[in-house]
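Hey everyone, long-time lurker, first post.

I ran two proteins through the pipeline my lab uses and got sequence/structure pairs for each. Pasting them in order. The first:
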Amino acid sequence: MTARIVDTAQHPLATGCPPRWASGWGQDRYGVFVEFTLQEITQRLRWIPPGRFWMGSPDEETQGLAKEEYEREWFEREHPRHLVTLTEGYWLFDTPCTQALWEAVMEKNPSRFQSPTRPVERVSWNDAQDFLKRLNNRIPGLDLTLPSEAQWEYACRAGTETAIYTGELAIRGERNAPALDPITWYGGNSGFEFDLKDGENSSDWPEKQYPHTKAGTRPVKLKRANPWGLYDMLGNVWEWCQDGMRDYDENAQTNPVGSLDTGAYRALRGGSWPNLARDVRAAYRCRAPLGNRNDFIGFRCARVRGEPGQPTP
């Protein structure tokens, strides 16, 4: 059974009323977008329409990926694949939150790999919540949050059902999957022609797609966007989700949400710059405590209010 996907191009925002917080809006080959601006930093959000998709991976996608017994548990968490329906559309940042936007809101930058156009990292889930609160107070009506794990995977897949949104993933070595190169920064290419003086020593990483000796995050939008105009959904930095990891079963789900307990872990999705190729897939799931900070973890924001073309309070 093929999942039903709604075409993003069917929402003519330009002929309706843009949200009051928007500094720009329009429609292009990817679909509808809006923008907001804070201190001359402009962030674009893409409209993600309601629809239905297959969440998780088919069994054959993860066969042979686990080299150790303990690793099998992580890949098993992608199964069973099941239908998920999202009844409400939402806006989603077209990139991970950049250091420029973070600094405009928080007036400091915790990132290891510093440059305005790189993703902010070394931010915990709790830090992201503080950022969201401050930004929402600065721009009334913006009402940003983090995407749920289901919203994240739906947006990443953008109507596709394969391991990555450009097709199947053939892995030639631990950090060597040529299909990833056009769309993501991962352990195989994140150090290729690395442009910062200080990077992670990658000289002993085995089976790299390209030779490199230091690696780290890279500026956003250097790789190809997915079919809905979202950049860096895979690789560069892991992205926090609002909810924790729920247990999958074969039953169809509508608007599923994992644990929101204050002491629980939260889901991370997408893989990051030092990751092995097997981990940089739409279905791969990870998690971390709410206070965890690492130089490979960032986030992107969502807004689950307001249809394109409709007045937004």
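...and the second, right after it:
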Amino acid sequence: MKIAFFGSSLVSAYWNGAATYYRGIIKALHANGHEVTFYEPDIYDRQKNRDIEDPPYARSVVYPGDEEGMRGALKMASGADVVVKTSGIGKFDSGLEEAVLEFRKSGAVVIFWDVDAPVTLDRVKNDPSDPFRRLIPEYDVIFTYGGGEPVVSAYRSFGARECVPVYNALDPQTHYPVPGERRFEGTLGFLGNRLPDREARVKEFFFRAAGILTDRLFLLGGSGWESGVPEILNVKRLGHVFTHEHNVFNCSNLAVLNINRQSMASYGYSPPTRIFEAAGAAACIITDAWEGIEQFLLPGRECLVARDGSEVAEIVRNLDSERASQIGKAARERVLSEHTYSRRAREVENVLQNKMKTARRS
């Protein structure tokens, strides 16, 4: 299959948390013999903050971040068997969501791939005039970053023909155990950009725990945390941590913290990229509580679960390196056996092939 992806960025994770997810899925699709072109706009300084060069598993097309650039990219995608529009590109989202549907006239399968389904669904639910609402039934399939049955049911209620969760996973060639480094050494590390529906939860789960355990070093990676958050002496702010440094970060801390955004935690069944990155590196994961976590990691054996910052502090206080190592190894074994991008790609492939057969018959 020739697949055209319109997304935020494949080559830069700068203000783009979905980058690792895109890379894992597309790399696995390429390994199965599919030809992928990824179209991304030149916006938000992402090209100045690349994590990778153009990858061998996809053709990367960076188009000017204006309407003419968008139209040119759409023209280049002509002839694709499958056209994907992802959520949250950051510019001309509504225009692209409508424009890609034109490819259905030439027999292409057109997909909306929602990497932030809780936010999209809440927005559409609260605004009946939202232009995306009327387009939902026009897509052949809605893929989602996660969300389980709550997200599937919500999309179906808006008329989706089919909604299939495609969860985050591990690329074992990208995330794996490495020796730790002093620059990232700490008791508890957290990676995540500052976003409106994450900030309060970071203050609760990370900063509150750091304020309780003042004799331990907490590491904070991600963009946007330079000011306006609690000034705690034992919190070391790192700024943007490039994806090629994630393995070292995850392997240098006693444990790493996962904090879901509020929308993801509310819907549940939405394990973020960071969980699989950390598990792949055999890191000990402490995560906030959310429904469905046992589908991915078993609490108490493959991860540790906290309901608030005081519980995070209590877990860290009682955690030693031996137990942390045991939990990290168990998490790695679980994701390697059940949650790799190779498995996710096969799921995507099966759906697309069935849709292509239907398109040919119609």
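Reply from user beta_strand_b:
Welcome! Quick read of the second one: The first strand starts at residue 2 and ends at 6. The chain has 13 helices and 13 strands.
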